[in-house]
Amino acid sequence: NAGVTQTPKFQVLKTGQSMTLQCAQDMNHNSMYWYRQDPGMGLRLIYYSASEGTTDKGEVPNGYNVSRLNKREFSLRLESAAPSQTSVYFCASTSRWLATGELFFGEGSRLTVL
Amino acid sequence: SQQGEEDPQALSIQEGENATMNCSYKTSINNLQWYRQNSGRGLVHLILIRSNEREKHSGRLRVTLDTSKKSSSLLITASRAADTASYFCATDGNQFYFGTGTSLTVIP
What is residue A109's predicted lDDT score, i.e. its pLDDT? Predict the structure, then answer.
């Protein structure tokens, strides 16, 4: 019963490098989200996918791209990493059919951009 | 800008005491949720309260909602050291906006 799985858990990049954060959920959820968490800022939504085949911008989408590969997978790409993108990234998923409407989170991906 | 703001930012209490944290939000909601985050971990859902509810209980948790004031409170009764964590409120919609969180420390 894996829930939401994020890879990698840790990554160090140099400014200008690119990378993709992977997220997969095994709960058959239709909606998936990417957040970043910075000290004192709480969680801020980067992008979300309300259903397979759709993606939308959140509060802080600049510098990121996403792909909803299929119902299970939602990836986040940094094309040219900047030190301001140093953060902890969380993927989450949910289903509108859930009575609790809760979000299920992965354990986070800690990214440092030098 | 973020939808929710928690208050206080940090709270330190003795084990056995009650902990109250507050959340204010900006726009109309269908429901409001509270989440907990242990250090270095992902967030875990605690409780959801719908806009037509004023109070909800779950174990040692009590949540209130005042839609006229756009605010909610989370009360943890008889706190334990294991309750040490950060607590976040989140408002609904497609975009699940989170607040900045309250860091709770329960001293044994």
Answer: 97
Nearest alpha-carbon partner for B86 in B17, B32, B39: B39
Cα(B43)–Cα(A33) distance, integer angstroms: 13
Task: Determine, for residues B95 and A105 on separate chains, whether the beta-carbon distance falls below 8 Å.
Answer: no
| Residue in the block written with tokens 């989370």 | B74
Interface test with A, best of B21, B86, B92, B96 (most A CBs within 10 A): B96
The structure tokens 């600049």 sit at: A62
Say which of A42, A48, A94 has its CB closest to residue B2.
A42
Band (pLDDT 50/70/90 cuts) for residue B1 is very low
Ramachandran quadrant class, A59 (left: phi over 0; alpha: psi -120 to 50; beta: rest): alpha
Q: Is the peptide bond before B8 cis (omega within 30 degrees of 0)?
A: yes
Half-sphere exposure of B36 (CA within 13 A, CB side): 13
B51-100 per-position pLDDT tens digit: 999 999 999 999 999 999 999 999 999 999 999 999 999 987 667 788 88
Q: What is the DSSP letter of B77?
A: -
Written as six digits, the tokens of A78 are 């940094």
* Residue range A62-71, pLDDT digits in tens: 999 999 989 9
